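Here is the promised in-class demo. Please do not try to memorize the tokens; focus on the logic of going from shape to residues.
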């Protein structure tokens, strides 16, 4: 897949960022709701491929409908949500990191929960992921890190992935534009160089 990926280092992390209008094309603007759900599903497939050997946690904005889903057997409320800006109004591909969930959700919290695979989220309607842009984050961790990630996302100060992710772990954030002027972003941060794993996806 022909796409330009920006590669850079952030402390001890290897970072990879793709910004585009749709997974199959270089950066044209996404038209309102034009294939947004299909593109979201493509990115969920990408995340699933990268995280298949990890224990996977998802961070998603709170909605009552989400809490009622069968796979939500254990949910933790988190103070933070992750934000990547990809639009014509505030910038393309700006990684803003963790921001207070109160600024992003009506309930003032995000939900943290474990998944067998990001593909499980395909059963959700895409409006659960955001309004103008769908946003969802995944943590691919080693076993036994549940307490640690809960503490990480309960901090009173903005969490820093470079201080917390271990070498064999990974963070993925997906943003999908749904309105005119909003674009897609696929961001990966890993403790080791995963360039070869990413090449078949892009």
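The designed amino acids, position by position:
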């Amino acid at each position: 897949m022909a796409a330009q990926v920006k590669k850079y280092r952030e402390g001890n992390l290897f970072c990879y960022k793709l910004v585009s209008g749709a997974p199959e094309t270089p950066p044209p603007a996404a038209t309102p709701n034009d294939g947004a759900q299909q593109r979201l599903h493509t990115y969920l497939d990408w995340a699933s491929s990268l995280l298949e050997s990890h224990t996977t946690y998802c961070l998603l904005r709170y909605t009552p409908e989400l809490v009622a889903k069968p796979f939500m057997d254990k949910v933790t409320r988190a103070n933070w949500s992750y934000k990547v800006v990809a639009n014509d109004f505030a910038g393309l591909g700006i990684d803003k990191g963790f921001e207070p969930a109160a600024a992003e959700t009506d309930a003032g919290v995000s939900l943290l929960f474990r998944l067998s695979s990001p593909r499980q989220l395909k059963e959700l309607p895409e409006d659960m992921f955001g309004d103008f842009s769908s946003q969802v984050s995944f943590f691919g961790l080693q076993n036994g890190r549940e307490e640690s990630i809960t503490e990480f996302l309960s901090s009173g100060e903005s969490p820093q992935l470079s201080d917390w992710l271990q070498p064999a772990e990974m963070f993925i954030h997906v943003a999908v534009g749904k309105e005119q002027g909003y674009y897609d972003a696929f961001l990966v941060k890993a403790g080791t160089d995963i360039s070869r794993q990413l090449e078949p996806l892009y």
